Amino acid sequence: MLKIGNHTFHSRLFLGTGKFPSFEVQKKAVDASGTEVLTFAVRRMNIYQQDQPNFLEMLDLTRYKLLPNTAGAQTVDEAVRIAHLARASGLCDMIKVEVIADTKTLLPDPIATLEATKILVEEGFTVLPYTSDDPILARKLWEAGAHAIMPGGSPIGSGQGLLNPLYLRYIIEDSPVPVIIDAGIGSPADVAQAMELGADGVLLNTAVSGAKDPVKMAQAMKWAVEAGRLGWEAGRIPKKVVATASSPKEGMLD
Ligand SMILES: CC(=O)[C@@H](O)[C@H](O)COP(=O)(O)O
To answer: pTM for this one?
Structure first.
């Protein structure tokens, strides 16, 4: 069971809702993923044009926790304002803090992320900051009261997988709060790697929405999360540089 703040989840897969080829495919993929948490940019919400299609309208929202994110924010003020908008709209008290100040890498602004996290924790939100794979910043975030840490595997939408497994491991080993690897996941193998490192979960979007068959990929991601978690719980064998026969020698004829 995954616990973040006061929320508990069976599934360890968080799914983004952007860029699916259609709402119908999105719905089928969400179902196939087994996710309980859907994230979306508050700025995509159609608050003022109720007659326009809503990207969440095909989904039975009673089945999912919504994790609004502050995507589009470039400053602390913007992130905090977007979080307030999410709360005023009656969405979940969870907020994914995303403050991006670089359009090429889409890497998070570490100082603004920390500042926004402090403010929103103080205001009673359940705060999940999207951060780089920097273990020192991760520590400052949980010291500031973040309820989970979401380090990127690689740049958003890049599908590059985990570029720095060592730093992610440092974060996972030290963090007193859940660590969700967020962004850059390209394939089920990346997901399994994250979970085998000991991550508490993964958040992904593009790898599913951009797949040739998003529904099949969503199912594959679900199984990869489960397989990786099980493998981590089971404890892998140590790597050796020499071969060791897998059959025991005892009882063998010479
Ligand atoms: C949907 C969302 O929150 C993204 O910003 C997230 O980081 C996912 O990234 P990928 O699309 O690389 O999976």
So the answer is: 0.93
C-alpha closest to that of 40 among 61, 64, 56, 16: 16
Task: Give the separation between CA 119 and CA 123, rounded to whole angstroms.
Answer: 6
Contact 181, 160 (CB under 8 A): no
* Ligand 1 pocket, Cβ-based, cut-off 6 angstroms: 16, 18, 39, 69, 71, 156-157, 182-185, 203-207
pLDDT tens, residue by residue, 16-51: 998 999 999 999 999 999 999 999 888 876 655 555
Q: 69 a known binding residue? A: no
**Which has the closest alpha carbon to 162: 194, 188, 139?**
194
Contact in structure between 176 and 142 (CB atoms under 8 Å) = yes
User: CA 160, 166, 167: angle at the middle one, nearest 5?
Assistant: 85
Q: In 3D, which of 70, 69, 4, 58 has the Cα closest to residue 30?
A: 58
Residue 159 assigned as binding residue: no
For ligand 1, pick from 69, 156, 225 the residue to mutate: most ligand atoms within 8 Å of CB. Answer: 156
